[in-house]
Input
Amino acid sequence: MSTNTIIAIAVVSTLGLGIIIHSWLHKIIKFKMDESSIIQHFRENTPSGSVTLETLAKSAGLPEKRTLEVCQKSTQLSSETNGLWKLNG
Output
């Protein structure tokens, strides 16, 4: 292979890896920011109570679908049997 081919393969591989890492970090950071918005609601408004998903979504400024995804993945939030969410600890 020529030097130009090797350089082209290296550049394309590096760019591809950079894009993958960027999207992975974006996903993690977005989740943590959304989770923080939801947790902030509990700390400011209902420190010891439970809240509906709709209330959390409005307070955090997120769509209900995204709020549900974040709540389900979060280790700091838990669901109660009647569909309410609460802050752990």
